Each structure stands twice: as structure tokens, then as C-alpha cells.
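Dear colleague,

Following up on Tuesday's group meeting, I ran the structure prediction for the two-component complex that the binding team flagged. I've pasted the input sequences exactly as they went in, so you can double-check that nothing got truncated or mislabelled along the way. The C-alpha cells for the whole assembly follow below. Feel free to forward this to whoever is handling the docking comparison.

Inputs:
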Amino acid sequence: MILNNIEVMFGGQAGDGSLTTGDLIAGVFKRMGLEVYTYKDFPSRIRGGHTNYVIRAGTRANYGMADFVDCLVAFDLEAVQMHIEEIRSGGFVIFDNTSEELTEEVRRDDVTFYEVPLGKLAKVDLGLEIVRNTISLGVIGKLVGMDPQVVREAVTGVYKRKGEKVVDLNIRAIEAGENYVTEHYGDKPTGYGLTKGEDGDRLIMMGNDAIGYGALTAGCRFMAGYPITPATDVLEWMAKYAPKYGGVVIQAEDELAAINMIIGASFAGVRSMTATSGPGISLMTEGIGLAGSIEQPIVIIECARAGPSTGLPTKTEQSNLNHLIFGGHGEIPRVVLAPGTVEESFYITIDAFNIAEKYQCPVFVLSEQALCQSKATLPHLNFDHLEVDRGKLVLDPVVFGEYKRYEFTDDGVSPRVIPGVEGGMHLVPGSEHNDSGVITENAKNRKRMMEKRMGKLISMKPDLPKANVFGHPEAGIAIIGYGSNRGPIAEAVDRFAEAGVATRFLQLRTLWPFPEEEVQAFIRDAEHIFIVENTFTGQLARLIKVITGPLPHMHSVLKYNGKPFRPIEVIEAIGTTANVRSYAEV
Amino acid sequence: MAVVMSPKDFATATPSWWCAGCGDYGVLASLKQACAELALQPKDVAFISGIGCSGKISGYLHSYAYHGVHGRALPAATAIKLANRDLTVIAAGGDGDGYAIGAGHFVHAVRRNTNMTYIVMDNQTYGLTKGQSSPTSAVGYITGTSPTGNPDAPVNGLALALAAGGTFLARGFSSQPKLMTAMIKEAINHPGFAIVEVMSPCVTFNKVNTYAWFKENVYSIDEVEGYDPTDRKRAFEVLMAQGKIPLGIFYREIRPTLDEIVLKDSPAVAGLTIDADLGRFASIQEAYR
């Protein structure tokens, strides 16, 4: 059986090397010309506790999770116990039986077990226990019919920085894995084969890295943040790269400091951002209101995790949407953008900086654990059409007395002069103020100032990222979602189409100001509308219902157990509710 | 070219919201005087304040002024200095702003030692909310929120700062303008995070710590024979001592500032002129092939 896609899961104790091996095999798949998506499911601790790393690879771009696991590499018995039910019928398990025996009750008749003493082979034959990860790669390669040469190239690529000795050791580890399979199970035991793609020259990047990269490219030269899972990678990325380009990265004492720092840097004329997750957003909420009030451009990266409170720090969820849109006292103009892929994470972050500066307000980039900490393949990034738009920033001297920081204008955006510029001295107060920035409680002024600020939500509309539309434009089944759900939903749409069922999918990329026109136009004439999201309360569905009113043919597809959707879950939910014939065959 | 500046060059047309006789007028006057004597230009001064009566001060100093949220003046000011190191950055706030809601930032601003000045206008009460106890109110101070007397020991801001690695610690009194002006000038010139705590009486709500009370209860550190402001241990002794309140510059130390450490030889204004050629960042993706 030649597969056009495969899902491999590495399971073991945190610190066992599942992540390293997963990255290694992801690199091999990429070199084979396949598209890759990885998903980290790990505990909120450093050593110990079950962890697993899923690598999806195949010929279709922008994957999420697969329906099932094809191959589980279990470094311990617990990994088998936890994941045996997720394995595809006909799939297989590679079990490291060095220190534990497989027990009968974990076996499934329709799943093949390959018992390989990975740890023992590593320690006894190669003298170093840690290479058991690489041995497992040799075993997988043999079982799924990977090109042995490509496997060796990938391993060499990963380890060449560590020297020839390390490369040699890992090559021998690959051989040890392959030989063990041949000796004990024959040359082609599974009958599995994996198709080869065309273009191996692409990138593989984590969502958070793409955000950092986008920010740097967009001219962000100040970042302040407080470490928090799953957003810390952005801070680390910027700490590594930004200083090379004159940028400053500060680890703040808390999120309150971080948000106020980036507002300060913005006041001084520098593009600035922070990156955080739900608990940090809660702490930053007051500062975000200040940025809205004094019309300071800032970008806030929100890498959502499951809440409330500490919640599930390392798991995915979309439940902070309401907070980003409505959180805080008073009313401010704000923007919420949501990339759906690693590639979009780069471009949308650049959009965020331009929108923030052009409309002088806070802009959120909303990612999620299942996207921001996932790696994916993508084409080389295209810099040809990228630009920096600094809006009404004024760097030339202005005539003192004539300059008004909050001048009333048609689009609600006032010229912004920064410290150091002759003639432009002014006050930016979080208290209500007049067009000159002088604090006033005048009722007429208050009304006009509210209308000026909130009016920016309308004038900015042409600059907001448009939604992506997939599937058949006139299909009776209409699906709406965003973020990491793009992968599983788009895959469901394709698979419905292959089975002769037409569906359409609107992937929202601007969530606030809410894209009413796009949603209205998309759902027109739909027989069934499905809102797919990782929340309990259906936050996106409620936003849609505000503009549509309650509709009998609108259904929420919800998942809130901390894990991303698998395509089959979307297919089943839609198939059951919409009474799609034979959805089980999709 | 030396430009002669007058305190009037730092005045705004905005009418003050402070009560007649408020100690904050003295702070503002000394600040303007210090800026003029240092021949600073308003365009090069970033003035950041918090919330409370003291926080209003940013509206009254002609400069690039920032009136942020309660307790967060220091993070904003730190970032403004890092974003544009050519600016003279001055933050100001009250005892509530600095030692209660902003106490966490205070400690970290001190240890970062960014080259800026922080003026704490201490009136030992919450004025703008009409007279509750503050982090520097005396034990037993009776207010609407402490009808049986404030139970909490007062914060000793300067001793706290010294423990956190403070490099310039001074205390003035708002009815001694010359001393305060000299202190603020030295603070602005200090290469590091300089704190000037000012006893600034609230004439409306604090009937205990009045001008008359202060006149009886302060002394100048200059009267102490052989006092050496580079002696950290001695500074601790003076700041921790019970009894009369010392005024003056208690401690000075030169150590690398945050802006020196992180900015190194970066341009003065980080990222003000952004590359038109974004293509120069394209090579970073090679690391992901």
C-alpha cells in the first residue's frame, strides 16, 4: 500500500528525545519533497510525564493532524497504553522493549507490533544510549519504505555542525535500525510505501519563528515580554535576531511592565511588540486600553493556550477570542488578525505592524498552541511585495502651536510626531483629552473624540487581511473557522469533494473589526452553516449570530479538550448533522 | 552653542488642577528650573508620569509628555530611553504610584539602572481619591479606609532602592526649592537610574505631615560630619535610622546602565528609519531550509 500521507507519533517520557527524533524525521520527510506539519503534545514540566510529538507528512499542503496515527514509536509502555486507540486500523507500533515487555491487553488485532530493543542497541552496540532516537528513525525508514539515501542525507544535515564523529555515529545508528528490521522481520514487512513529492527545496519553520521573522522584517525594533508558554519562542527568536539589526529585546518583570514598555517605545517612534498567552493578556488588558486611548501603535502576539487561569499551559484552545475583542474597560479601536498557517504567520505579522501604525491602535496577532509551536513546510518567503507603511508619522519639524497630536481628521487618524522633533511637544494622556492632548471632561469633546477613535475601525477596513475561501462557492454546506483549524477543515473539504459532496469553507483572517460583509456574503443561500472552533461556548459562532440572528441551520462544531481537531472529527460532525450520505466513506 | 533657557520655556498653558499650597507646585518649579539651568530643550525631554495628583505634573511641563496608567510610569520610561537614547527621560509619580501599585516595577527599574531620573512626590496620603492611607503613611494614620488607624508599616523607598542596587538616591523637601533644584540637576546628570524622593505635603488631606511638621522633622545630610555618599553601608544606616528625616544626596555609584549594555553602538533611535529594502532580511530563511 502506497500512502500519500502518513502520521508518525513519538511517545515517551518528557526528555526522552521524542522532540529531537520528531524534528529529524520531519527533516527527512521534507527532503523527500513532502509537506510536513508537526504537533507537540507535551506536559507542563521539564523531565518526566508523558509527551508525544506528531509528524504529519504527505503530498497536500498545509496539513493539520491526520485522522489517525499510522505509526506509533513508543519509547515506553505508557505511550502504547495512551495512544493505542488513536492508531489507524492496519497501522503499526514500534515498541522499545529494552526495559519493559509489551502486555497482552494493550495489543490490537488490527495493529502490528514491531518490538525493537532501541535502548539496548544504542547502549550495547553503539555505546551511547541517546542514539536510540536515531535508531528508531532507521526502523521507521525501513518499515515505511523511505529512501535510505535521503534518510542519511537528512541525518548528516542535522548533525554536521557537531562534527564528523557525531555524523558517523548517527549513520551507524540508522544502519542498526534498518538491519534489525531486516534480520527480524524481513526486507519489506509492512507493505507500506510512502510516495515521494516533487520539491524538496522548501522551508520548515515553527509558527512562532515565522511571527518573530515577520516582526523583524516589518521593522519591529523593540520587544518586551515575560516568558510564558507557548509564546516564549517569539521572545527568544527576537532576542537572537533583533540586536543584529539595532533592536532591543527586554525580558520584563511581568506582563504589566511588558505592555507599558512597548507603549513607551512606540511613543518614542519605534515599532514595538510583545508576545504572550491568555494569562498575560489578562494582565496586559489595562495597558492595551491605554494604547487605544492615546492612539499608540503596538502589536501584541497572542499564542493562545487552554484556560481559564493556568488551565492547560501546553495545550491548544481558541477561547481567548472574546478577551481580545472585548477585554478591558471602556471602548477602543483594536484589530484581531488570525493566521491559519506558518506561512501566513509571517505575512500577517507584517500586516499587523502596518495596520497598527497606519491606524495608531493596538493590533493582535492571534495564534494558538497547535499553530505557533507547530512546524510546517512552506515555500520560500517572498519579499518582493513587502513594504513598511508608517502612516502619518511625522519626522520633520512642525510649527509649534499648530501641531495637534489628536487633530480631528476624516479617517480618524492624526499626524504623529515623536520626541526629538522640533515644535511637536505634546501630552499623551490616558485621561480623555482634546485634539491638542490637553485633559478635558468636556462632554462635546468627549463625544467627538470617541467618534474619532472608533471611526478608525471603519477607515481601516480596506487594509485588513481578507478571508480565504475554499471548496465549491455554491455548495450547500458552508463551514467557517480560523487559525489552526484551517488544516483539518480544508482537508475535510477536499475529502468531501473527492466523495462527491460539495462544501465551502471560509477561513477568517481578520476577526476584529468583525468581517460582517465577508461572513454575510459567504453564508448566503447555504443550507447548513458549521462554525468550527476550539471553545466551549462557541465564541466565534456568537459573533456571527450577532449579525445573522439565530439561524436554525447554523451549527457549532466544538472541541475543548486541549487537542486540535482531526479532519475526521470535522467530517463526522458535518456528515451527521447535514445528513450527508455515506460520510463514513469520506 | 550654549542656549540660555528659562523655566518659562518649560511651562505649558494648561491650568493646574492642584490645590492651592500643594507641595507639588514646588516640585514642578524646581523641575523647570533644573531643566532650564541644564539648558535642556523641550523637544529632547520625555516626561512620564503615573496616576494621582502627582501624575498630573506631566501636563504642566512643556516637553514630550506621557501620562500613562497607574503605577506603570517606570516601564514606559525605561523603554522610551532604550528607544531613543538622545532623550532626557524623567519619570514622576506619587508614593502610591511608586511604592504601592508600582512597587514591583520600582525594584526592577532600580536594578536595571537605565540612565533616567525618577521623582517620587511623597505626600503620605492618597490625595486624588480624597485622603486614604498610602504606603508611606505612618502607622496609626486615621483615614476613611483606616478608621482605627493605618496598621501597615511605611515603605522606606530609598532603603528599598539601595538594597535593589540603586546608584543615585536623594531626598528633598518641596519648600526648599534651591536644594531640590540642585538635586534634580545632579539626578539628571547622573549616568544611571537616579531617584529623587520629595516630601511634598498635601494641604487638603494630610493634617499630620504638614509643612510645619516637616520643618520640625527634617535635617540635612550635609550637617552630618564626614558623610560620604559613596559609602553604601553608611547610607543604609542613615536611611534606616528612626527619628528625624534626612534630606540630601545619600548615595552615588557608577555602574553600567541598561542602555549602555543593550544598545552598545546601536544608533540613537532604534529603528526610526526602517529599511526600505526588506529583501535584506530574506537570507534569514536560509536557516530553515
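Chain A touches chain B through 69 residues (CB under 8 Å).

Cheers,
M.
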